[in-house]
Write a structure and sequence with these properties.
Elements (H helix, E strand, L loop, with lengths): L1 H18 L15 H18 L4 H8 L9 H20 L46 E2 L19 E6 L4 H12 L3 E6 L20 E4 L8 H12 L4 E6 L11 E6 L7 H10 L7
Parallel strand pairs: 1-3, 2-3, 2-4, 4-5, 5-6
């Protein structure tokens, strides 16, 4: 049995060495594209620690004690890798240490901080730093001249819907749409015609929508403050967020508005956006 455990640990160490450089960072978000792959590897490590017996229990407790262990941060992956590598080295030199009260291979796996989902994703390609998808939310469009039917709010008056104001084909708006869907929120798209101000007089606010995102480009700056003032007046201070590419000359400090310049991709601000949504009362699925 000890030879089987040692061989399994060797495989896990090899896999961990490949995964480790691909983990996300605390300041930018974890790697959601390889999240499931990481969770499968982490779960397999915990199961092998359990099978190795008492000598592996300190390593198992270290991994379980990591508060961010359920997400593919590089720091969390490094902790799992270090534990697996150290245990592998010990058992390789002294195989008898894996005997005694070791759990059988059929024992129930240790509880995870987040569920593992099977994945066929390869290790190649760029990072995608955003929360892992659990369910998709339909994208609803609200014409500015229509009166939408209110839905029943949840979470003490805050539901799952947020306004997204921007041009339909804007790449940053599309990234935001995907991000909101993946954290379990529903986009209420308010389409903007390129270079034109919103018809605010014809727009009817939905009572269960408590937060708004604006995606501005350089053509929108002339009327941006007027639109923002309207939405801040309706939703309240801190309930409106502006996203724009860093080359757009938008003011950094706007009273009552959260402003986030994006250098490359939305993932740069994913953690900050989730923090603000939580503060607004939204509950996200991840």
């Amino acid at each position: 049995m000890s030879e089987t455990i040692i061989h399994r640990l060797e495989q896990l160490v090899t896999t961990g060495a490949q995964l480790l450089p691909l983990g996300g960072f605390d300041y930018s978000g974890y790697n959601a594209r390889l999240q499931n792959k990481y969770l499968e590897w982490r779960k397999a490590c915990l199961e092998t620690f359990e099978q190795a017996g008492p000598i592996a229990f300190p390593y198992k407790n270290k991994v379980i004690g990591d508060q961010n262990g359920g997400f593919f941060y590089q720091s969390s992956a490094q902790l799992v890798y270090n534990c697996a590598k150290e245990l592998f080295d010990k058992l390789k030199n002294s195989p008898d240490l894996a005997a005694g009260t070791a759990a059988t291979a059929g024992a129930a796996p240790t509880a995870e901080a987040a569920p593992a989902v099977s994945s066929t994703t390869s290790l190649g390609g760029p990072r995608v730093l955003k929360p892992p998808p659990k369910k998709s939310a339909a994208v609803a469009e609200v014409p500015q001249s229509s009166t939408p039917s209110p839905a029943s709010p949840t979470n003490g008056g805050v539901g799952k819907k947020v306004y997204v104001v921007g041009e339909e084909n804007d790449p940053l708006r599309i990234q935001l749409e995907q991000f909101l869907s993946e954290i379990g929120l529903e986009q209420i798209l308010v389409k903007r015609v390129h270079g034109q101000m919103l018809d605010l007089d014809a727009f009817d606010h939905m009572p269960d929508v408590k937060y708004a995102f604006f995606v501005f480009n350089s053509e929108d700056l002339a009327y941006a403050m007027f639109e923002l003032g309207h939405f801040v007046g309706k939703l309240g201070k801190g309930m409106v967020s502006v996203l724009h590419m860093s080359d757009v000359g938008f003011p950094k400090n706007v009273p009552g508005v959260n402003v986030k310049p994006i250098v490359v991709k939305l993932e740069e601000s994913s953690l900050a956006i989730m923090k603000e949504l939580r503060g607004a009362g939204y509950k996200m699925s991840f």
